[in-house]
Amino acid sequence: ADRAVSNMIPAHSQFLKGVRPDWNISISGSDATYEVTVTSSDLGEAMKIKALGFSGFMVQDDHHASHHLGIAVGTQVH
What's the farthest any 2 CA atoms get from each other in the chain? Predict the structure, then answer.
């Protein structure tokens, strides 16, 4: 589980920085302990971020299908 957290949180945060330009995303930590801070100066985006919470943040955007297919066939997606 620690390895999954160490792989998933930084990679997804970096991915979202590229596809969500209205979001300010910063992460700190290492191993299995991270703090993710997501903000936006756009009120609508800020409200969406708050409503999403961490789980919602982690499932944002459309790369998840290709990611899970990559896992299933043994290719590295991130």
Answer: 41
**What SS3 class is residue 63?**
coil
Query: What's the pTM value of the predicted model, to 2 decimals?
Result: 0.75
List the Cα angle 60/61/65 in 5-degree steps.
Answer: 105
The 3-state DSSP class for residue 32 equals: coil
Tens of pLDDT, residue by residue over 15-57, are: 899 899 999 999 998 877 899 999 999 999 999 999 999 999 9
As given in the structure block, the two tokens for residue 60 are 């944002």
SS3 at position 74: coil
